[in-house]
Design a protein that fits this description.
The chain is an alpha/beta fold and about 475 residues long. The protein contains 16 helices and eleven strands. The strands form three sheets. It has a six-stranded parallel sheet, sandwiched between helices. The model is unreliable at about 1-10 (pLDDT under 50).
Length: about 475
Amino acid sequence: MQYENHSSQVNHVSPPKIVVIGAGSAVFGLGALSTIIQHPAMRGAELALCDINAEGLAVIQQLADIMNRAWDAEMTISSSTERRDLLPEADFVLVSIQVGQRETVWEQDWRIPLRHGLRQPYAENGGPGAFAHTARNLPLIMAIARDMEELCPAAWYLNLVNPLIRLTTAVHRYSSIKVVGLCHQLLWGYTMAAAVLADRWGIEVPAGFHVHTDADNMPAFLSVAGEAVKHLEIKAAGINHFSWVYQIRDKHSGEDLYPELRDRWLHHFRRDFEPLSRELFAIYGLMPTAGDSHLCEYLTWVSDPVAQPWRKYDLKLQNWQGNRERRAYRHKLARDIVAGRVDVNDLRDLSRHGMLDEGIPELVEAVHYDRAHQHPQLNLPNRGYIPNLSDESIVEVPGTVSGAGFKGETFPPLPAPIAEMCRRELALSELVAEAALKGDRDLALGALLLDPMVTDIDSGRAILDDLLAANAEWLPQFG
């Protein structure tokens, strides 16, 4: 597969065509549209919006039109519930979809293994819940790739769907489409470091602060995160939701802050602050970036019913009802702007609504107009970027984005124990992707038994059977 296009770039190219699949998403869509439409380099671009929810899509189309006029973006904006109507001549296809109502199926993915004695700490990207999450989303993820092969074979597939490693792996291995996985999780690493070093810059950290990825915690999180990116520069590498800090510096002075961060967090800071991250930092010598909620998903030692590590490390589940309320709030915000009850400029600042800037227009600008851009977190096939992880596996590194494509930065080898945990998760991701694509029950069971949380064959088989039965309407490949 070609990931770097070395053909010459012309300076005066036509504006890009960007297709957004899943544009009606209240959690993702509003923020993505805001950043794309208000970005100066996207002026005049063609923006094509797709969602299977016709009613929600109509609101988003109207909202995009309002942004377009208010912010003088001069875009051509269209929408359709049929992606094939929009894909021809696309330059970038931005995918943020979910099969099944997200909070409902997520809770189901957690409760089914619990019936068989397995309490997962999070159930999104690791554990049996991640198998179900992958298997539901993969048919649609690959159908989009197949349509792109036919209708826009040179376009970039920008994947924002979890489980990010598994789905990005599938597009890379089983299609000819160029794919990059995008995630904002490094911001959690910035925020943890800023909380520990807060007094250097006078950052106000709320009492009992933590970085759990939960709707109710986002205002507190973003208040510290916003300050963190002003003062810190971090380089990290590994795999998605399991990356490790190689370098941390003061953004302005260039001072190496790793010795101070290590000493403070391990010896002079709250022991209840992201305690699992603190424990692994102490054991392996590198700071993990994801925060405890995601870090725990690939580990062996988080689901033992006797030790109950979820209590010891205060591993928090998602607040599914809180997420539903966040979704409802953002849908209402979109409708209120369309109805004129809220000024569209209220969406210029995403942080006030608990939204994150994914950096998408900067990536599009860099590739389309050949304007080199450094991006802190790219999920790409390994090209020696992390030398002790396998080639072709999807690794997460910072990199340079330009007309030549997406090129990662090369790092020294990961410490041996961390590398082994990454290799296991990458092997598992590849097996799950293959099993979910083929609908192969035997391969699925073999993959599930490789998962570090599954410790018994019979319960693993029972969990698989129940997950397949509960999700049958979304898993046609398993027949």
